[in-house]
Amino acid sequence: MKLIKLVGAALAMGAVALVVSACQKKDETPGPAESMGKQIDSAVKTAGDQAADAADKAKVEAKELAEKAGEKLQTAGQKIQDAAQDAKK
C-alpha cells in the first residue's frame, strides 16, 4: 500500500511539474509579423525624427530670409527718403 501511495505521489508531482513548465512563457524568436511591426515602428520613428530636424532647419532658414528681406526693405526705404530729399532741393 505504501508503494502505491509513493508511486501515486511521484506521478502527481510529475504531473504538476509538467503543467507548471508548460505554462511558462518560452523565449521564442519573433514571428514575421512581429519583426515587420518592429521594422515599421523603427521606420516611423526615424521619419518623425527627420521631419522634426527638417522643420527646425526650415525655421532657421525662414528667420534668416526674413532678416535679409527686412534689411533690403530698410535700404530701399532709405533710398526713397534720400530721393525725396533730393527732389525737394
Which labels suit this protein?
89 residues, mainly alpha, 2 helices, 0% strand, rod-shaped
Characterization of this structure:
The protein has 89 residues and is an all-alpha fold. The chain has a domain of 34 residues. Helix content is 89%, strand content 0%. The chain contains two helices and no strands. 0% of the residues are buried. The model has no long low-confidence stretch (mean pLDDT 84).
Sequence-ordered SSE layout with sheet pairings:
Elements: H1 2-23, H2 32-88
Which class do the helix and strand fractions yield?
mainly alpha
Unreliable residue runs: none
Tell me how many strands there are.
0
Q: What Rg, in angstroms, do the CA atoms define?
A: 39 Å
Shape: rod-shaped
End-to-end Cα distance, whole Å, is: 133 Å
Number of DSSP helices? Answer: 2
Helix content: over 70%
Sum this structure up briefly.
This protein has 89 residues and is mainly alpha-helical. The chain is built from two helices and no strands. It starts with a helix and ends with a helix.
